[in-house]
Amino acid sequence: MASDEDDQRVPLKEQLRLFRRLAVPYFEQAEGAKLQFALLLLLVLIDAGVSVVFSYVGRDFYSALSAKDQALFIEKTANFAVGLAVATPLTVLFRFQRSRLALNWRAWMTTELARQYCTDQTFYQIELDPRVDNPDQRLTEDIKAFTAVSLDFGIDLMTSVIDLVSFSGILYSIYPELFYVIFAYATFGTLTTLQLGKTLVGQNAQVLLREANLRYSLVRLRENAESIAFYGGEAQEAREVRDRLEGAVEGRRAVLGTQRNLEFFTTAYRYAIQILPVLVVSPLYFAGTIELGVITQSSGAFNSILDDLSLIVNEFEGISRFSAGLRRLTAFGDSAAPSTPPVPAPPSPSPLPFRALAIDDLSLLTPDGSRLLFANVSLTVRCGEHLLVTGQSGAGKSSMLRAIAGLWTRGSGIVTRPLTADTMFLPQRPYCALGSLRQQLVYPRPLEEWSGAEWTGTDDALLRALGEVQLTRLASEGTAGLDAVRDWADELSLGEQQRLSIARVLLRKPRLAILDEATSALDLENEALLYNALGQLEGLTYLSVGHRPSLLNFHASRLRLYGVERTPCYAVETIG
Ligand SMILES: Nc1ncnc2c1ncn2[C@@H]1O[C@H](COP(=O)(O)OP(=O)(O)OP(=O)(O)O)[C@@H](O)[C@H]1O
């Protein structure tokens, strides 16, 4: 969780650049996107044409009324009805196409960013990146707002330009002075709005962040419900939720205050429009130079043009929210985009002929670079040998595994290990995926990838592995067998989850298994059972991190980490 309190005011040019970076790829890469966009443009043009035609139809209608000519009035009413019949489907289609394109665009962008997010452990690296908070919100709310507002605003802008050109002609032909008044009025309105509302962008960004933080605290409460209930931590949790809620409400209040001030102005600005054009042209009407229909037409044209010129006044609130979201999305995109690893070179996994793992002169820093965890560690583990890593709490044991996995890359040195497909990491906290028991066992490979050709009798192998870790009962409870779907993370004890993780290793048969306190929740008997099962896997090398002396029985050598205060900061010894 980061707190992003930085200044949100970004120059317009920079905003346009960010916008282009986010928007253009969809129209360049997605199939049919250009066509959909072209169709929308066509409908925008038609819709603008419909408005102009209606301005004339309306003018004739009112002129016939004021002339008290009943036959003409009926004729103009009929014209109006025909116009309505043609314009209605066109306007509806235009709106539908706009929403459809927004949805397609959103789906494409979300898929694209979610793909990047789930590739190359980006979801993990993002957690280490202080610039990016609440990625879930960015992938959902921010993209939705970005695509919808971009289209709405882009189309409004386009319609405004078209309207401006067509209605300016009408207005100028009626009364040039009206034309000058409108420009002066719109310029005054826009400048005043910009001045009154300039703090809204930053305030909206704060609200987005605080609401996401509130949601995050509720999700954490749900995920850790049992631990919190055992601790009796509800008062502390309630305070946290309340504080975050207050933060979000306070942010909204600030937005409301600015909006109120802005609306004092914009509301008066819009009310005045109702009579302003009539006031300007009324002398012509009283002099008998123009008819009533011309007044209503000029009033309509005036309103249209003013709407066009006042786009910023009318949409300021939306634009400011959009602009806040724009920055959040680009920061997320930057962090999720595949990047070159930081120098010095990170550990480089590659296959080895006789060695399962080689570490050469490895020095590692924490991800923020603030602390050196260990320096110049070198060692080799031969195929089929097993290494135990020990050291005081915080000495950097798990961090060494992170470096071997390539998750932490700040530092120097070379790590050589089998390819990822031949290496399995069992983290300190076991992970249960969503889905069936079968999916738990084959994790992390998707079910479809387990073809019958790879191992004979798929279900037999799964049940055998369950038996080896003493979990056969999971498949025999109920009638669903291996297809049973339960909330495994919630229902299985920690020890059972650890046994399930070992079953995954037995099934997958990697060349290298890295076990981070993978049996810490088990009794000694079960621990021995699991390590013996691992020891019987042909060609397997494992490396364990753990504190228990009993682990010495299952390893040939030991790496001790002492911390950087001591030189050398490590020792490798054979276990006698
Ligand atoms: N994301 C992080 N950013 C900065 N420092 C971190 C981060 N994660 C862990 N550390 C720090 O790195 C140090 C080493 O952590 P590590 O998890 O490797 O310790 P360990 O030896 O495995 O400890 P234990 O036996 O308690 O599990 C710790 O001091 C920890 O606070």
UniProtKB/TrEMBL annotation:
Per its record, what are the GO molecular function terms?
Answer: ABC-type transporter activity; ATP binding; ATP hydrolysis activity
Q: Name one Pfam family in it.
A: ABC_membrane_2
For this record, the Gene Ontology CC terms, alphabetical, are: membrane
Does the entry feature the keyword Transmembrane helix, yes or no?
yes
Residue ranges of domain ABC transmembrane type-1 in the record: 38-321
Recorded hits in CDD domains, A to Z, give: ABCD_peroxisomal_ALDP
Q: What is the designated name of this protein?
A: ABC transporter
Q: InterPro entries from the xrefs?
A: AAA+_ATPase, ABC1_TM_dom, ABC1_TM_sf, ABC_transporter-like_ATP-bd, ABC_transporter-like_CS, ABC_transporter_sub-D, P-loop_NTPase, Sigma_54_int_dom_ATP-bd_1
Q: Which domain of life is it from?
A: Eukaryota
Q: Which family does it belong to?
A: Belongs to the ABC transporter superfamily. ABCD family. Peroxisomal fatty acyl CoA transporter (TC 3.A.1.203) subfamily.
Record-annotated membrane-spanning stretches: 37-57, 77-96
Keywords (alphabetical) are:
ATP-binding, Membrane, Nucleotide-binding, Transmembrane, Transmembrane helix, Transport
Species in which this protein is naturally found: Emiliania huxleyi (strain CCMP1516)
Domain (ABC transporter): residue spans on this chain:
357-574
